[in-house]
Amino acid sequence: MGDATVTVRAVEATDEAAWKALYRGYRDFYRLDPDDAVVDRVWAWIQDATTVVEGIVAERDGQLVGLANHRAFHRPSTGTIGTYLDDLFVDPSVRRSGAATALLARLREDAAAQGRSVVRWITASDNADARSLYDREAAETRWVTYDMAPTPR
């Protein structure tokens, strides 16, 4: 992988094509149905300052190689605000380049600068490569995640 340095920065409007390619890769990794409408919607959220979704990207040799989509979330149990990492993805061709570590470091630094209490995320239990990194960077919690489908009244 050479000595290329990974830099992390906020998503810019000119990143659209590269960001969308990475986000499609993220969706493919998690075996989500291909859906350009979803990709377009998430991109629009990141570009819209009135939504809570924000994005950062990892860049190497002038190319986007990773992304992290995140947002603030209220924590009533502690009376604080945390950062929730919704999506983290690094192009498979540059895995182990330090891009994911750099994205997590930037989230940690930004959270500290904003007075946030935690950076939190979930991952698939079988995502062994990512979990190896996450175990070095964060503490696994005892909490189990549930999803409940909304139903009309």
TrEMBL record:
CDD domains: NAT_SF. It comes from the Bacteria. Residues 6-153 form the N-acetyltransferase domain. Keywords: Acyltransferase, Transferase. Gene3D superfamilies: 3.40.630.30. It holds the Pfam family Acetyltransf_1. This is N-acetyltransferase.
